[in-house]
Amino acid sequence: MASLLDPLLLARVQFAFTVSFHFIFPSFSIGLASFLMVLEGLWLKTGKSIYLDLFRFWLKIFAVAFAMGVVSGIVMSYQFGTNWAVFSDKAGPVIGPLMAYEVLTAFFLEAGFLGVMLFGMNKVGKGLHFAATCMVALGTFISAFWILSVNSWMQTPTGYEIAANGQFLPGPSWWAIVFNSSFPYRLIHTVLAAYLTTAFAVGGAGAWHLLKDPANAHARKMFSMAMWMAALVTPMQILAGDQHGLNTLEHQPAKVMAMEGHFQSHPDGAPLVLFGIPDSEAQTMHYSVEIPKASSLILKHDLDAPLAGLDSVAPEDRPPVGPVFWAFRLMVGIGTAMLGVGLWSLVARWRGKLYDWRLLHRAALLMSPAGFVAVIAGWVTTEVGRQPWTIYGLLRTADSASPLGAPAVGASLLAFVVVYFAVFGIGVWYLLRLMAHTPHSGETGVAGQETGPVRTSGIVPGTAPRLEREP
């Protein structure tokens, strides 16, 4: 019970809770913004109204998801000052400018063109509206660029100097900070994850409508496009994940040891632990199901390559194995299932049965939330595997927290839980309701019935109704 009242643990739980809620919305909106850009581009190129209908159908969903992502993200920045003031003080000279760049380049770009994208279809030219859509999509990518640069620097810090007061200061080159050792791998892996998350969400919606009406042309089109993305991008993501894992082995070996469940070192080739029950206290894996030497083959491309275990790491520097071990397997398992659905769709497409195989549609519907689960599992693997460090190898999490008491942190955590489940629960319900709406010809998008300028006071000059004179 005493450990549950630890202010450090409560602060970590609070940040984990808010990040988990936030992460699902950008992982959806990044891919959905690009999907909208493709739909509008295809409409302009082909003139087919089905692409415009789908653009307007998903535009409403994007607007809600984007808004919830912005609101949930703002809260996290306040926690840097309330719960993690020591970290903010020490790392602020490095991460502060990077996060400011995200606001100045990405958020301003999105905010500047979002209104045109949402409400300007009938008010500006087609080319200008498409440019606005492209800018919003670009803004989501730039936002991911800067946020992942910050996170990657915390994972693999480079290009810094430590001042006499213990602060991390930027070195002579900002490029060494921005493009740190793990950043390119993390950026590619995360952006591809966002595209797959969107693909399976779109595919699940298309499958839902195909199960109700196999002849619905709009459902067919969105399902076909989503399955192309699943079939093509999933193998790319598996390759990117493999390269990211090799980079992690180089710079954060303890994290990989926890992911693999290697408590002991293996000088003559390490097994691939498929399943088991990690026991961090006893430093062993119970009921382990293994493939001999397969881990050495994957990580070192040599069956007999030695791999160090957690017994080579000081006890105070070891990450918690259980959450990392299982989150990694959940992420890999979902990725394997995604690959299976993508290949299944290729077989169905080749046999001309893409819109007829009901079992495939049910599988796609079942997989529709899989991307969201996978990105959260990947986040847990990355962040819990970094422990006990906030800045890997340099600043411990225990030394990063604000000097707050457990009641203060616990009260704010309880407030977050209540508000988040109420507000974002309603938001997710509304998103699902929008997706359940059957796509059809003549979709109206997010525009209301107002055809002129927004009336903020009285009526617009020149539009007042004429009064008939009395005889």
UniProtKB/TrEMBL annotation:
Chain ranges passing through the membrane: 20-45, 57-78, 98-120, 127-148, 187-211, 223-240, 326-347, 359-380, 409-432
Q: Which UniProt keywords apply?
A: Cell membrane, Electron transport, Heme, Iron, Membrane, Metal-binding, Transmembrane, Transmembrane helix, Transport
List, alphabetically, the InterPro entries matched.
Cyt-d_ubiquinol_oxidase_su_1
Entry's localization field: Cell inner membrane; Cell membrane
**Which Gene Ontology CC terms are recorded?**
cytochrome complex; plasma membrane
The biological processes this protein is annotated with in GO are:
aerobic electron transport chain
Q: Name one Pfam family in it.
A: Cyt_bd_oxida_I
Using the UniProt annotation, give all residue ranges assigned to the region (Disordered): 442-471
What is its membrane topology?
Multi-pass membrane protein
Which domain of life does the protein's organism represent?
Bacteria
In its UniProt record, a GO molecular function of this protein is: electron transfer activity
Main localization of the protein described in the UniProt heading: membrane
Query: Which family does the record claim for this protein?
Result: Belongs to the cytochrome ubiquinol oxidase subunit 1 family.
What name does the UniProt record give this protein?
Cytochrome ubiquinol oxidase subunit I
Look up and give the organism this protein is from: Croceibacterium salegens
